[in-house]
Inverse folding.
């Protein structure tokens, strides 16, 4: 190998190298308008990818939903009201369901709402039970709950063929987004009221309009507060799928280490309370 290569390559670089090598490999072949599934599997095996992984990836691509329609002004301004993650995993629906129920009960602040064949829904734990679970998690050094802002979490579990199951997880965040939208609109409205009052008190137009940019800027800043909530909920869904798929969380979905000591636990609880 060339002497200027590093001794070790990190995970993101490995993924880029493998993806680029696959592009170079397929670029040497005339694939025309496409390949059959058998040809894709054969091509993947040429570069050493086991057939079961190729088959799983093909099933996931086939089960992938169509591109979502462009979001409206509310989605563009405040962020998504519902986040969704989906994956094809190895295992029968009963096994997948059991793993998913275990994860949600152990790692999230959720309680089972309803379970039907192929569909499960959870709702937030509230009251004393929620406080007890939060305290127990903090004292044990457990990672933070990821779906606490979701009003409803649902799972749709579909058998594709023997040994493969398609899982779609969704988190309803409309209530959290509504709170942010209300705060942003309230600030803008307050700016309009302040301008109206100044217009009556002052003959100068620039004085009356002065509060508008300030309150509009504050409203815009508040409107951006929902996006991290949606991103965190999506990460929570991906972590659940990681557990269903492989029994552990992928390194790319891992959370940063918790602050050490009792003070770290207290600070984490304060941050969590402020984010509610």
């Amino acid at each position: 190998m060339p002497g200027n290569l590093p001794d070790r390559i990190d995970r993101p670089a490995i993924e880029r190298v493998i993806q680029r090598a696959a592009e170079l490999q397929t670029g040497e072949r005339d694939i025309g308008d496409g390949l059959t599934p058998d040809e894709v599997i054969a091509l993947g095996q040429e570069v050493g990818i086991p057939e079961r992984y190729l088959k799983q990836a093909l099933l996931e691509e086939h089960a992938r939903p169509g591109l979502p329609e462009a979001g409206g002004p509310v989605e563009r301004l405040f962020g998504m009201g519902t986040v969704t993650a989906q994956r094809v995993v190895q295992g029968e629906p009963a096994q997948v369901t059991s793993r998913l129920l275990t994860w949600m009960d152990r790692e999230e602040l959720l309680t089972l709402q309803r379970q039907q064949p192929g569909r499960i829904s959870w709702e937030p734990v509230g009251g004393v039970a929620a406080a007890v679970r939060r305290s127990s998690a903090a004292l044990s050094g457990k990672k933070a709950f990821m779906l606490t802002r979701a009003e409803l979490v649902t799972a749709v579990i579909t058998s594709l063929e023997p040994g493969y199951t398609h899982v779609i997880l969704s988190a309803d965040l409309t209530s959290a987004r509504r709170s942010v939208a209300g705060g942003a609109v309230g600030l803008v409205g307050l700016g309009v009221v302040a301008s109206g009052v100044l217009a009556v008190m002052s003959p100068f137009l620039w004085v009356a309009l002065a509060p508008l940019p300030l309150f509009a800027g504050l409203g815009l800043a508040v409107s951006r507060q929902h996006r991290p909530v949606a991103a965190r909920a999506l990460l929570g869904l991906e972590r659940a799928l990681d557990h269903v798929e492989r029994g552990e969380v992928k390194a790319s979905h891992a959370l940063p280490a918790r602050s050490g000591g009792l003070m770290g636990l207290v600070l984490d609880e304060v941050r969590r309370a402020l984010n509610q």
About this structure: The first strand starts at residue 82 and ends at 90. The CA atoms of residues 26 and 43 lie 8 Å apart.
